[in-house]
Automatic annotation (TrEMBL):
Associates with the 50S ribosomal subunit. HAMAP family: GTPase_Der. GTPase that plays an essential role in the late steps of ribosome biogenesis. GTP 2 binds at residues 267-274, 314-318, 379-382. SMART domains: AAA (SM00382). The lineage of its organism: Bacteria, Bacillati, Actinomycetota, Actinomycetes, Micrococcales. Keywords: GTP-binding, Nucleotide-binding, Repeat, Ribosome biogenesis. It comes from the Bacteria. Residues 1-10 have a biased composition (Basic and acidic residues). This is GTPase Der. GTP 1 binds at residues 93-100, 140-144, 202-205. Residues 87-250, 261-434 form the EngA-type G domain.
Length: 521
């Protein structure tokens, strides 16, 4: 029984191929007339040839998966649908009262990073949730403190912005501590915002503590709701009440767009990912600080850039291998990987003032493994001197030779320099990611390549490509039906030719094989 054999970065076989194919240089340039001949080839003639090749597969053993691949319908263009803006519920309070734990309880899953130390959440982070058949947006915020300085001041400012952009607010207080001076400062801020406020007395783990909630009437926000975010006690009743306060359609949120392209911003800590998001948004959307590792939760933001709406996702910097991390950094890395899986294109930010590191290469490999489109953003270009530029070009040539197909953008997230060049790079990468090659043209390309550069003989046999088809897009995935195993170098050779003829700039290409034997008569 044979299965798909994906393209893998095996040890190169250049020397072996050179010995077997002295007249055929697999690393050489493609026949300059090949692209023109394929372009001139009549589509109807090409499809007839492909149909003939496909009919020849009936002589070979095929299973149900093979038939599914052969019968796969070509995907149509993706549409964009406009949906009503979901009501927004902001959750605020001083540090370490359990805001993120309450967010996770409302969502019904562990989404927000939670650790038993104050100040884990720093940005305002939005999540989609549902209760009683109604969808709404929950916004988690960092702890609000009066007279905060440094990074804490930025965290507090983001919490205030979250209140301004919400339809209702959950004000969380620790029932075991009671109302503090900081809580009273938060109440004044909430009254100035003039938004509906629901007072939540968290950490009421049992009914014995419920009477303590009566002390919170002194804050002047009405009846406190005793809950336990940790155990879920009282949260259902709280959400029932929230549904009576939230409007059906948000009065403050933008119209939600179902289908804006999702862009994940990845990189090592402190390379300028959050600065890039803020500059693209034109406002201080996420907390930026010289302290490495400021971002911990992936932050989604819809941004209008280049005349289009994009969903940019700022992620936590990947410091080192996940299994060597601890606490909030460990969960932040897991959420970064999850954010990448939900994205369509990844912008990997590289700091040009520092040498390309193993961490940078690991992040790029993470994108390649996920199959997402890729754009390389070389940040802090305004700080680059001539000596460092020469070294950088050498590092790119040596360390990033495997992603020469990725669009490159030289930017400065701090000043906004060349930020406008990011949009064409994203559009190019996504267009390639969505590209589908007609089956007839693909088989014509394979026929040309195998005629000029046949696969070398292995063990007295020469594998042949019977038929090829593009099984899917996102990323472009090609399936080759063959009579034997194709060497990894030969598959890379096919990938190179696909790029030289059809571009595929900004997207990885997957070439799988299905080795099939002739039916026994």
């Amino acid at each position: 029984m044979s299965t798909d054999v994906p393209h893998e970065p095996d040890a190169p076989l250049e020397a072996e191929f050179a010995a077997d194919n002295t007249d055929s240089d697999y690393a050489g340039e493609v026949d300059p007339g090949l692209a023109d001949r394929l372009a001139e080839l009549d589509d109807e003639v090409a499809e007839q040839r492909a149909a003939s090749l496909r009919a020849g597969l009936s002589d070979y053993e095929l299973d149900e998966d093979d038939l599914d691949v052969l019968e796969a319908a070509e995907a149509g263009p993706d549409g964009i649908t406009y949906l009503p803006a979901l009501p927004v519920l902001a959750i605020v309070g001083r540090p370490n009262v359990g805001k993120s734990a309450l967010v996770n309880r409302i969502l019904g899953r562990r989404e927000a990073v939670v650790e038993d130390v104050p100040g884990v959440t720093r940005d305002r982070v939005s999540y989609k949730s549902e209760w009683l058949g109604r969808r709404f947006t929950v916004v988690d915020t960092g702890g609000w403190e009066p007279d905060a300085a440094g990074i804490n001041a930025s965290v507090a400012a983001q919490a205030e912005v979250a209140v301004d952009l919400a339809d209702a607010v959950l004000f969380v207080v620790d029932i075991n501590v009671g109302a503090t001076a900081t809580d009273e400062h938060v109440v004044r801020m909430l009254r100035n915002a003039k938004k509906p406020v629901i007072l939540v007395a968290n950490k009421a783990d049992d009914a014995i503590k419920d009477p303590q909630a009566a002390e919170l009437w002194s804050l002047g926000l009405g009846e406190p709701w005793p809950v336990s975010a940790l155990h879920g006690r009282g949260v259902a009743d709280l959400l029932d009440h929230v549904m009576t306060v939230l409007p059906p359609v948000s009065a403050v949120a933008k119209q939600e767009i179902g289908g804006p392209r999702r862009v994940a911003i990845l990189g090592r800590p402190n390379v300028g990912k959050s600065s890039l998001l803020n500059k693209a948004a034109g406002e201080e959307r996420v907390v930026v600080n010289e302290l490495a590792g400021t971002t911990r939760d992936p932050v989604d933001e819809q941004i209008e850039l280049g005349g289009r709406i994009w969903t940019f996702v700022d992620t936590a910097g990947i410091r080192k291998r996940v299994h060597l991390q601890q606490g909030a950094d460990f969960y932040a890395s897991l959420r970064t990987a999850a954010a990448l899986e939900k994205a369509e294109v990844a912008v990997v930010v590289l700091d040009v003032t520092e040498p390309i590191s193993v961490q940078d290469l690991r992040i790029i490999d993470l994108v390649l493994e996920s199959g997402r489109a890729l754009v390389l953003a070389y940040n802090k270009w305004d700080l680059l001197d001539d000596d460092r530029r020469r070294y950088l070009e050498r590092e790119i040539e040596q360390d990033l030779a495997h992603v020469t197909w990725a669009p490159r953008v030289n930017i400065s997230a701090r000043t906004g320099r060349h930020l406008e060049k990011l949009v064409p790079a994203l559009e190019t990468a996504l267009e390639s990611w969505d590209t589908r090659i007609p089956t007839g043209k693909f088989n014509a390309l394979l026929a040309e390549l195998t005629a000029e550069h046949p696969h070398p003989v292995r063990g007295g046999k020469q594998p042949r490509i019977l038929f090829g088809t593009q099984a899917s897009t996102r990323p472009p995935t090609f399936v080759l039906f063959t009579t034997g195993f194709l060497d990894p170098q030969y598959r890379r050779f096919i990938q190179r030719r696909l790029r030289e003829v059809y571009g595929f700039e900004g997207t990885p290409i997957v070439v799988n094989m299905r080795v099939r034997e002739k039916r026994k008569r």
